[in-house]
Design brief:
The protein has 268 residues and is of the alpha+beta class. The chain contains 6 helices and 9 strands; from the N terminus they run αααβααβββαβββββ. β6 and β7 form a beta hairpin. One of its GO terms (biological process) is proteolysis.
């Protein structure tokens, strides 16, 4: 029995065949060129150091996958390892889906957005390190993120269920400040935990030099509208998308909507 195909079907089959051949060719190129060596060079160039061999193997696999994607997007042209901006960073991340983000909270009339953001970061890293997601108390006094972190480092946090009674405290050993106006560094920080972020433009929709709100960045992804940061706010479930918001990434000129120019991020 003869099988007839129209022109559209033939073109579709050709495209599928070409894609498969191209993918196999790239795969051979990647395996032959020693991914381990390229990753090592990339690590040295970008100053990356991993906690242990498990983390290193995980990041090397992500590096390999991202290298394949970049080569494909560049038409299989040769790319130097220094040109890969986030070679070992996952293409998308959602800490809530990984169980490291508590339910939405509402700061109400308290001017404590920074406390909510910092406490959320502590809750996240506690879950990642111990496997337990605990809700800590936030307090009701506005401060800069650094002062909140200094307080936790010195005096610890009480669980929300036990406050104001004497209960178990959680202290942090320290924290790091992510360089401002650097989305690549923020991506690297978020690969390890949710990150407390300060933003400007929430109330005036203009980006200036004064940070006027603090949030917790819990992930990143992209959709039909482009790349975005996923954040958890502290204004209750009625705000944004059930208490969450998306902020566009990689749009340097649109300052009022971007974390790239109006940001001060802290990682614990």
């Amino acid at each position: 029995m003869a099988i007839s195909l129209d022109r559209k079907s033939i073109v579709t089959i050709f495209i599928f065949f070409w894609t498969c051949c191209t993918s196999r060719a790239m795969s051979r190129t990647l395996s032959e060129s020693s991914i381990a060596t390229q990753h090592e060079e990339w690590m040295v160039f970008h100053g990356r150091v991993y906690a242990d061999s498990v983390e290193r193997i995980k990041r090397q696999q992500i590096f390999k996958e991202n290298l394949f994607i970049e080569k494909h997007n560049e038409g299989n042209k040769s790319l130097g390892f220094h040109k890969m901006r986030v070679g070992d960073i996952e293409p998308n991340l959602h800490w809530r889906k990984r169980g490291a983000v508590n339910n939405i909270k509402n700061q109400g009339l308290c001017g404590i957005c920074s406390a909510f953001a910092v406490v959320a970061a502590v809750e996240g890293i506690t879950k990642i390190k111990t496997g337990k997601l605990v809700s800590f108390t936030d307090g009701c006094h506005g401060q800069y993120d650094e002062k909140n972190l200094d307080y936790i480092q010195s005096y610890g946090l009480q669980t929300e269920a036990e406050y104001p009674y004497d209960g178990k405290e959680v202290r942090i050993r320290g924290y790091k400040i992510v360089p401002p106006r650097n989305e690549e560094q923020l991506l690297k920080a978020m690969a390890n935990q949710p990150v407390a972020v300060g933003v400007e433009g929430v109330f005036t929709w203009e980006c200036g030099t004064y940070l006027n709100h603090a949030i917790i960045a819990i992930g990143y992804n992209q959709d039909a509208n482009g790349k975005y940061w996923l954040i958890r706010n502290s204004w209750g479930e009625q705000s944004g998308e059930g208490g969450y918001m998306k902020l566009k990434r990689d749009i340097v000129t649109l300052l009022s909507h971007s974390l790239s120019k109006c940001v001060g991020a802290k990682i614990i």
